[in-house]
Amino acid sequence: MKIAIVGTGYVGLVTGACFSEMGVDVTCVDVQADKIENLKKGILPIYEPGLEDMVHRNYTAGRLKFTTDLTECLDDVEVVFSAVGTPPDEDGSADLRYVLEVARTIGQNMNKYVLVVTKSTVPVGTAKKVKAAIQEELDKRNVQIEFDVASNPEFLKEGDAVDDFMKPDRVVVGVESDRAKKIMEQLYKPFMMNNYRLIFTDIPSAEMIKYAANSMLATRISFMNDIANLCELVGADVNMVRKGIGADSRIGRKFLYPGCGYGGSCFPKDVKALIKTAEKNGYPMKVLKAVEEVNETQKGILFDKLLKAFKNDVKGKRIAMWGLAFKPETDDMREAPALVLIDKLVDAGATVKAYDPIAMNECKRRVGDKIEYASDMYDAVLDADALLLVTEWKEFRMPSWGVLKKTMKTSVIIDGRNIYDKKELEGMGFSYTCIGK
Fold it and tell me: Based on the number of CB atoms within 10 Å of its own CB, is 75 exposed (0-12), middle (13-18) or buried (19 or more)?
């Protein structure tokens, strides 16, 4: 089977590479010529474990191609996936201009049947708009060409995206014809050999599933952060609380870890978009509004704890930060708590020196020289008055506490991910603060 994928961001590039790994002939399309040229050279626009090798392997084998022009391959492919960006508008709703632009291009140039699949996260009703845009262009050409639309939302975790695609816990596909269903069944069959996890729905339900899933996960995070903050006030230990409620099979253990707020490309954007969709339909999403409010407050909690440690004055203090990306195994800093923290620290007159294994260049692109950049995790803490653990990268889990004790000016550690042992660190003379204890 031959397919095209428009958009080479996280979703498009991972999707294209994984389909080509299974033997599908894939052409990835992107309007950014420099990105396409870099991909042909093996230079990826994102960091994702395992992706670079997969792209190189399948590009060399000829199963994965890159172009800036969808029309070059449109006559040859049976399926076109739209994986372009849907950034939030100023009001929080999803911006569909790129999705509809792809649809119009298809309508202007298609000469035979094609199945158009929306892979981007889009509001309920987008498939209808895509279908209308394609049909409008066909009408302008005064031609009758059969086509189908479908919704195939992605459920990829950044840092685990390749594994998630190759071994999915479920694949959701919204269709409105048997022909589209059969094509999608054929396309995903290689991924379903061990356990049948292909779920077919109507298109509006498929579009809603993605938003509902991400909003539920965001809700669990904000709920646990709210509980953690209350635990501190009443003398409870959130880790014990988490274990106790996670043992309930109705609740489960996943996404019950408190921290300094969620970020990334999905949760913040999707929560906002679902709230806006509800508003347009005259319904207030009260729970999700609270989820969003808790998260925005939580992003400043490490700064608040730092102020408390230094009696509300951090002017002139040297603050080390471990971690910049919104989560480990990615360089993504979209909506990252680190960005909020940096702004608050700099505005308060502190000097910040940060280290992240992957996201240093992305941070430089976003904040420039507002902060200093360390060569490694120990360089970051040299002469520091305090260390803030922001992202729980594996290399931060077992540092040499003796080195920190000798090199830090003041032994203050604020753990935003609850990965260290309070008794152990206080026994070595550190002042240790985490979340929810």
Answer: exposed
Per-residue pLDDT, averaged over 46-63, amounts to 95
DSSP string, 334-381: TT-HHHHHHHHHHHTT-EEEEE-SS-HHHHHHHHGGGSEE-SSHHHHT
Known catalytic membership, residue 363? no
In CATH, what is the architecture of 211-297? Answer: 3-Layer(aba) Sandwich (3.40)
Query: What phi and psi, each to the nearest 5 degrees, are found at residue 35?
Result: -65, -45
Residue 95 has a pLDDT of 86
Say whether pTM exceeds 0.70.
yes
Q: Write down the number of H helices and E strands in the chain.
A: 17, 14
**Matching residue, tokens 């953690």:** 228
Closest among 164, 193, 187, 158 to 175, alpha carbons compared: 187
Greatest alpha-carbon pair distance for the chain in Å reads 79
CATH class for the region spanning 299-433: alpha beta
Which residue in the list 73, 266, 363, 434 is annotated as catalytic? 266
Domain boundaries, the chain: 2-201, 211-297, 299-433
Cβ contact 14:161 at 8 Å: yes
State which fold the 2-201 domain adopts.
Answer: Rossmann fold (3.40.50)
Token readout for 170 is 């479920």
Output the pLDDT for position 196: 65
Judged against a pLDDT cut of 80, whether residue 241 lies above it is answered with: yes
Number of Cβ atoms within 10 Å of the Cβ of 294: 19
